[in-house]
Specification:
Protein name: PLP-dependent aminotransferase family protein
Pfam family, one: Aminotran_1_2
Helix content: 25-40%
Radius of gyration: 21 Å
Bound molecules: 4'-deoxy-4'-aminopyridoxal-5'-phosphate
Shape: globular
Strand content: 5-15%
Keywords: Aminotransferase, Pyridoxal phosphate, Transferase
Distance between the termini: 19 Å
GO molecular function: transaminase activity
Cofactor: pyridoxal 5'-phosphate
Length: about 425
Amino acid sequence: MTLNSLDASATSPRAELPLADRAASLVGSVIDSSTSLLASQTHDIVRFAMGSPADEAVPLEVFRDINAQVLDHSSLTYGATEGEPVLLNALVDYLAGTSDPVDPERITITAGGMQGLDLACKIFINPGDLVIVESPTYTNGSATALSYGAELLEVPVDQDGLIVEALPELVAAAGRTPKAIYTIPNFQNPSGVTLSLPRRQRLLELAHEWNAVIIDDDPYGLLRFQGEDLPSLQALSPGDPLLFSVRTFSKILAPGLRVGWVDTDPAVRQLVINAKQAMDTCTNVPAQHLVAEFIRRGGLDNHLAGLRVEYKRRKDAMQQNLRRHLGSRITTTDPEGGFFLWLTLQGEDARISTQKLFETALAEGVAFIPGPALSASGKFDDALRLCFASTTPERAEEGILRLRQAMDRELAA
Ligand code: PMP
């Protein structure tokens, strides 16, 4: 079975079904399909594919303890759409002590970052609207825009993130201004690169010139393990009505909780609440209590500090292993935080299709996400995304050796 065969768009529904027009734009996520595909494999696989925190990084015992304390009838009934007050308060208090304080008037709790992206697109995107996306990008995010009928304008990233200087010319060529700009400013998924300060400032100026909303998707910002912190878009433009910021606990606590938040203009927040009431009424209440109590006990700072140390160790080890075992056959980005690095095949190896390599590598016992699955138009067949966060350095070395074996097999084929 291949990764693409699990993509929902690969099977057409029966023509006679009375589908909505938008059903045609509901493209499946190749990234998420990898979870099901890997779950169905019985052989040993080193998993560099999904962007999951390390099992060891999830504070299971603390959650077990908190669960015994917080689970009661009040946490098993409907909650407030905007979020449980205990979590809203804990979050506002926690962030008040960081460089990114939040205004309680702007916060809504969501079912993870994905729901935040969906709400942003639901509120701002009409069919046919132009949406700028990074290239490569987190294609679950670009697919959300597509599901509301957006037309995507892909703009490349370099080591300083989205090439903001290229935007005016590309927008002029498109013949209309964008309605939204979807960016992942810190340790971008999939490339690992970070948007520089001058580009952050210029992006805000352009968004105002075009009256375009910035969908500022930042799941990894609290996971910087080297280099200087940069001010967030929210810090550079406090109270900006054009900023729709999407945050999540998935990468810093546990993705299965499905708890995140959005930070928006208060008037937009009311639309977020209205939209959520027609969507899921409220976010999972027990999960919000687990997160709230975890923060209230004062564990988050220590937890984050531990993650930063461990993820730096894993990133360094991954790069060392790549250098040792693949040398000049590849180049990689050097992320200063987050989960991912982007590997580009060089020389002879650039002939290899990473989509085909995926299958060979899976047979060898290693999984990654091929470049085309991380591009709105299927580019980057000579590149791939590796998640360094979820694998120990020892396992990672084994994974890189298997990757080399798969590359050798592809070259010889
Ligand atoms: N945005 C980006 C850039 C991500 O990497 C992810 C998770 N892979 C999400 C959004 C979705 O986060 P969540 O799992 O909280 O829905």
